[in-house]
Input
Amino acid sequence: MPMPGQLMFARGLSPTSRLIFWLVISFSLAFMDVRLGALDMLRAGISGALQPVQRVVLIPFDVAGEVSGFLMRHREMQLERDRLLDERTRLNQALFASRDLQRANTELSSLLGLARSYTHATVAANILYQGQDWFSRRITIDRGTSSGLRAGLPVVDAQGLVGQLTRVFPGSSEVTLINNTDQLTPVFIQRTGQRVLASGSNGTDQLELKFMPTHGDIKPGDILLTSGLDKVYPPGLPVATVIRVTRPDSSPYARVECVPVAGVNRDRILLVIPVPATSPKP
Amino acid sequence: MMPSREVRQESNVGWVRIALTLIVAILLKQIPWQGWWLIMRPDFVLIGVLFWALHRPSRMGMTVAFLLGLLSDFQDGVVFGQHASAYVLGVYAVQYFRLRFLQFDALQQSAQMLPILILVQFVVLVAGWLSTRPPLGINILLPALSGVVVWYLLALIPQALHGKKATRQ
Output
């Protein structure tokens, strides 16, 4: 197809042939990436080249955060301190109860000959940025293989489970969030102990439960914790809170909507839990 | 025939100016955008590529657009080739309508950019859909709207430099 203003006897390929050439290259790249997974080296290369840029861009935001933190009003600080003191008192009480339970648990476990659960030595990471991806929910953090991370590790914040590492580069890695479509998390309902599968729901930021029978015992306000059945997530991490249960006549399964407990879209600092290397790749 | 003053000027300053604007565009995409700002974020690199494809077609061809598309694919953490194919198609469309675009002032030009930006987003949508899964929503068309605003602001610069209508090269 000739182009307006195109030279009639120009050397080289016509714009249309060049377009077709690059489109063929693009689609073969996409094929190699999705089907063969052959472009991880290219990703790692670009990651290494962009890493200084990613760090430098964050500097003004960190400075702005410092300045606004410095200018925060005295009264607000006092209020926050009072709130934190209050919270510390309550947490201390919970801690004593928890220590007592842990001691009892250790004794019972040794009686039963069960394996001890590992202690969590977590890796703290900052969120670098979030890409404009219309097909999945991911964020990029500033720790990678150089900090001992690998694909498959769980990522949490102070409240609960955030997601799982899916691509790990030397100095950064991508976290797929738990509310991503097709991201499955084995959970149990804290109140009843029933085990179910939570998955990201398409189109919203929420999670939904897969294959929850209509007559199942579940109600709004129930809390979902990781069951640890998949050996990926350690058991007992808070995942989501049930907000709505509908029981459609047409389906044998109830429709259960839940919101993530963790501030999936609000955090700046996350923790990666390096569980032992038995975890399968996502 | 001697090369005109404009051509010689272009060969001197062309590269530096193009490289600087594209670096700024990449940095703007790298800022930690969040929430609605992230959804509405125009594709600065795409705007830069199309702008230079319009004003310096000898510098900004499909090869550079393809490579910058690969960079965008990495920045957004998506499948390689998704933005690359879309950018190449966008450059083709701008080349096709180039003589027409250059006759308009900034406002008319940005109105005519909207279909091209929507086309590019549509290619991103189809490429991602085919290679991974259905999209999370139809928000994907919003960056085309914010992109038109950025294009208008950008198109004011050559208009201010060259008079009411952008010069034809």
Q: What stands out?
A: The helical segments of chain A are 15-36, 40-70, 74-112. Chain A touches chain B through 49 residues (CB under 8 Å). The mean pLDDT of chain A is 82.
